Amino acid sequence: MKKIILTMLLSMVALSVLGTDGAEASSPRQVEVLLNANKLSFPDAKPFQDSQGSVMVPIRFVSEALGGKISYSKSGGKTIVEIRKGDDLVKMTVGQTSAQVNGKAKDYGTKVILKQNRTFVPLRLVSEGLGEKVEWDKVGRWVWIGEKTFRNTDDAEFKLRPLSDFKAYMKANIFFNKVASDEPYNGIKIVQANQLPIKLGDGEIIYDIRLENVKGMDYIVTRSSERNTPVFFMVKDDFVKFRYGLDSAFVNNKDGTATNYYPVTSTSDVFQNGKYNQYYDWTKFTLSNADYIAFSTHQPKDYLVVIVNPFK
């Protein structure tokens, strides 16, 4: 109960200071490809969206991740690309919009191209040619291939660490208590940014986290399945920096996800462990001071989930 009262107070202070201006649109982000909800890594040539709006993916990396075998040949001065996956065979020619899928010609309206020494094909070809379920996520600029089988913090790969390992961050012990009670969490589980998206136990899904500057102010921006779940920055040998999402900047993406904005700096930091410190200079905090970003949620109820600060 003490934790709930304190977080309500901090959120009211933060909202009253930050004002009501909505967030501005940011520049387009890099297109990402996810296979069964795990991001694929592209060491050089990256997926992109062309001037016609077609999503283009480097076919070698995608086909090999799907278990396909790719080969190249030359015919009449043109490059021929073949992909075999099980009983499926796809043949395409660089510079053409059509492909042979199991012996049948299909036109995709966008040319297969060579860029940065990689062959790029339209996303539809992955779906129709390789028999995969494919979805374009225009909000995240993500290509979902296969099933949305999210990692879960309940999974064995995420080890529960005792609170004692984080003693240096616990000057404000109250934030390390369970949301619904004053009992301490059983421990903490650590997530890396490259492990997103991830489901927090039986609770929300965190799809993405990024840093944006809006009208001269820095914000942590999350895309999640919930609205404005509180977060706090964990700073060694200092009080936590609690942040509530800015309601006026909240975006309902109308796809079951929300975009939430959290200010990096806030006047609410003058409240330290529930006590007002008029001499504390809240403007000196920078994001690089924080080692972890914690999600203050009801689920999972027994442990705290933190992400290693990717913005240091």
Automatic annotation (TrEMBL):
<protein>
    <submittedName>
        <fullName>Copper amine oxidase-like domain-containing protein</fullName>
    </submittedName>
</protein>
<dbReference type="InterPro" id="IPR012854">
    <property type="entry name" value="Cu_amine_oxidase-like_N"/>
</dbReference>
<feature type="signal peptide">
    <location>
        <begin position="1"/>
        <end position="19"/>
    </location>
</feature>
<keyword id="KW-0732">Signal</keyword>
<feature type="domain" description="Copper amine oxidase-like N-terminal">
    <location>
        <begin position="35"/>
        <end position="141"/>
    </location>
</feature>
<dbReference type="Pfam" id="PF07833">
    <property type="entry name" value="Cu_amine_oxidN1"/>
</dbReference>
<dbReference type="InterPro" id="IPR036582">
    <property type="entry name" value="Mao_N_sf"/>
</dbReference>
